[in-house]
């Protein structure tokens, strides 16, 4: 990953965010967030959640991550923080974990239900198992986003209140690959692998905005 071109959002200094660090491409997310100027905690258990103002759920294997979330006793604490408005960014398996509905998952697969999406695992099919594409993402300035898809999920249902920011064509149908609802942003690809920081910057802006509101409340 090249971090040379990362721009620091003005807001990132002083923010403390977490990366779920049970499995998957944790290191890439930690490196990108660090390069953007915030403090990054690796989250492995409920106690690690206390100090973070936002969380990134990495790519990996959602069935494994779901089991590890269970054994780390993180499912309920995470659901609670997300319900209370903690911003989140999920990439690939992280997107699956944040959705409300998983198709082709394990029967006991846990979801965090933070964004109302129905996602099907590994549904780009054999030929498209892994591929790259340049995507126009709504709201992002500059060049198209170079997206690396690795056994990516397909969004099959988009709930009320979810904005689709980018899509790709799959067998003649347009499939959402970047979605956002409130302060939860998900991508079915890996921006942390291609090194494009713009979705992480959106996440950090959400973290800054939510933190500013909370601080204002505390001072009121
Ligand atoms: N196929 C994986 C899953 O279902 C996701 C792959 C990824 O995160 N690159 O969890």
Structure description:
- By secondary structure, this protein is an alpha/beta fold.
- It has one domain (12-218): Class I glutamine amidotransferase (GATase) domain (Rossmann fold, 3-Layer(aba) Sandwich).
- The chain has helices at 26-35, 46-49, 62-71, 75-83, 93-98, 191-194, 198-219; strands at residues 16-20, 39-43, 55-57, 88-91, 99-103, 115-120, 130-135, 145-150, 154-158, 163-170, 173-181, 184-187.
- It has a 7-stranded mixed beta sheet with strand order 2-1-3-4-12-11-10.
- The radius of gyration is 16 Å and the shape is globular.
- The chain starts with 15 loop residues before the first strand and ends with a helix.
- The model is unreliable at 1-5 (pLDDT under 50).
Features:
12 strands; seven-stranded mixed sheet; three-stranded mixed sheet; single chain; alpha/beta; Rossmann fold; 30% helix; binds glutamine; 30% strand; 220 residues; disordered N terminus; globular
Question: What fold name stands as the CATH topology?
Answer: Rossmann fold
Strand content: 25-35%
* Number of extended strands: 12
Instruction: Tell me the CATH superfamily.
Output: Class I glutamine amidotransferase (GATase) domain
Largest sheet features: 7 strands, mixed
Oligomeric form: single chain
What is the first-to-last residue Cα distance?
Answer: 43 Å
Label the structural class: alpha/beta
CATH class: Alpha Beta
Give the low-pLDDT segments.
Answer: 1-5
Helix content: 25-40%
- Helical run tally: 7
Distinct ligands, ions and cofactors found in the model:
glutamine
Number of domains: 1
Element order: H for helix, E for strand: EHEHEHHEHEEEEEEEEHH
Q: Strand order of the main beta sheet, please?
A: 2-1-3-4-12-11-10
State the CATH architecture: 3-Layer(aba) Sandwich
Task: Give the overall shape, derived from the CA principal axes.
Answer: globular
The value of Rg in angstroms is 16 Å
Global mean pLDDT: 91
